[in-house]
Here is the input.
Amino acid sequence: MARAGLTVERLVGGAAELADEVGFEKVSVSALARRFGVKDASLYSHVRGLAELRTRLALYAGGELIDRIAEAVAGRAGKDALVAFAGAYRAYALRHPGRYAATQIRIDQALIADSPALRRTAEITYGMLRAYGLREPDLTDAVRLLRSTFHGYCVLESTGGFGADRSVQASWDKAVEALHLALTHWPREKTGDD
Here is the structure.
């Protein structure tokens, strides 16, 4: 029997808060049960275990992240969209470190296909990159470049990995400018249509 007041949505929201407070890797069924003042068994009528809880948290956080990005890029194209996209990504990663870490886990491809948030992520990201005249396979390559650059920068920044006197913001701005130049002058792959 499910405990009154506990729902999957409340549990995932609680897991998101917990992840930001203690780190994604420390989110467990036991820690979440303590947060709600219940026994571990009370949670199993809502989630099958830690793997499902973490997957739900990843999808939840991914939805939050793309909502912020979508709001930032609305009505923008080209460099303006890239700057807005990058800024929203970085702000979310730094403001919600545990949730952001959740977005980096590998999720079963079947769940991705069923996730409106992850489909929306692809639509917004690929839409922004199409403004640079990119098409497959260059789109996939460009997405990987952006993701690895943004992720690496955010992880280094959040862990204090930048020790030089140079402003971290100034370096971020240069990195985004460099990405814009790379996308503008992308080494397009030859296709049968070329």
Notes: The first helix runs from residue 8 to 22. Residues 94 and 171 are 16 Å apart (CA to CA). The two ends are 62 Å apart (CA to CA). DSSP finds ten helices and no strands in the chain.
